[in-house]
Amino acid sequence: MEKALARSFVGWLTQHKTSPSEERQISKVTDMNQPQRASVATVWRYPVKSMMGEELNASIITPSGVLGDRAFALIDEETGKVVSAKNPKKWPDFFSYRAAYASPPSVDSLAPIWVTFPRGTIVRSDQSDVDSALSASLSRKVRLSGSAPNAASLEQYWPEYDGRANEVSQEVVAGDAPVGTFFDFAAIHILTTATIDRLRKLYPEGRFEPRRFRPNVVIDTGDAEGFLENDWVGRTLRIGDEVRMHITDPCPRCVMPTLAQGDLPKDPGILHKGIMHNKVHVPFAGKALPSVGVYARVISAGIIRRGDSVQVEI
Prior knowledge:
By secondary structure, the protein is of the alpha+beta class. It has helices at about 1-15, 20-25, 130-140, 195-200, 270-275; strands at about 40-45, 55, 60, 65, 75, 100, 115, 120-125, 140-145, 155, 170, 190, 215-220, 235-240, 245-250, 280, 285-300, 300-305, 310-314. The strands form 5 sheets. Strands 1, 2, 12, 13, 14, 15, 16, 17 and 19 form a 9-stranded mixed beta sheet that branches. A 3-stranded antiparallel beta sheet has the order 4-3-18. β14 (about 235-240) and β15 form a beta hairpin. The radius of gyration is 19 Å and the shape is globular.
């Protein structure tokens, strides 16, 4: 797999190298807020927004994030909104759908995807009846799209306002991500094992797993403790030999991590007894919000692999 990634990446990388001046600006490494050792534990890609995704050993990182991540989404034909598990009252079983590429995507073209339905039915994105099959399964007319509509938005349910007029809000898609993408805000979401360990201590009855939070990169931070990523905001991560990412904001949380996913049960305590203990200032929101993990912007593309070293730079 790594050889295939490298072959498809060589030509593209020559046009996206970091400039010498940029290299000088980010070459310093600081010991501040840096665990004694840190490495890539795993990489995740979600071909269809809000569906279950794929765990990877390696991936190309482009300016738009993990290659092939959130490349597709369903569009609600009635409202024009991007379908999201953030509104479980309308899409109650969306986390029971799983998407995977039929073959590894390349920087030149993305392969078709397979979508597995909750009861085991499988459809492929390039078959003629994919939209009707998805619509029938979801009991609502939808279409699979590879590009976001203009001024794309989604619906987000707020359980604390259940039954009120404001229980569902309209949220803009791709606030800090490239235009036309389906990311909630940024193209990369990073999570550390230190944060997962801290949440487990706060709420031992809950099942805290990285997949609850749908990160792109999980970083093994060894024996480091606490919500480590909070102190990385405004800094740059160097991953392996090529990739650098600027950490822009903590990742604020909604109802999604509390929902059932695979063998993980629905558990409101995940939010109220765990995540709420990490209420920090989120720059793009302009206020403190319960958060887990951080958002990042890619500033130097390349390939990342499981086991690659991770360092916090100035």
